[in-house]
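#lab-general

N.A. 3:47 PM
ok so I finally got the sequence cleaned up, no stray characters, all 136 residues accounted for. can someone with queue access submit it? mine expired

B.Y. 3:52 PM
send it over

N.A. 3:53 PM
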Amino acid sequence: MLLVDTSVLVDVLEDDPKWADWSISQLRAHSKIHRLAINPIIYSELSLTFSTVEALDQTIEELGLALIELPRPALFLAGKAFVRYRRQGGAKGNVLADFFIGAHAAVANYSLLTRDTRRFSTYFPSLTLIKPDVSR
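B.Y. 4:20 PM
back already:
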């Protein structure tokens, strides 16, 4: 199973001039070897770009994404990682979602397809990240 981060999906949905090609090619390549999935946190973040739940659900289906639940150990790990982040001076901003996503992938031993790597690699060092080449 490969968890797909919101950033990658938004690149595709909004045809991001810098990242859409990379994100599309990664989704295509990895869909041949992994089941692509999102969780309720990613679903919620994606909902910001849709006017109806039906439109979002249709897009998820068209992209071939499975919607999988977060296990309780991932919820626990997300909270612990977020506390560590805050104690190290991390901003209060809208970052908690990243901790849920990273913890889910870490606990379930899924790889994560993402462009936003800093928090994931810092707070979930065992996580396998599929990310852009740093030379981009």
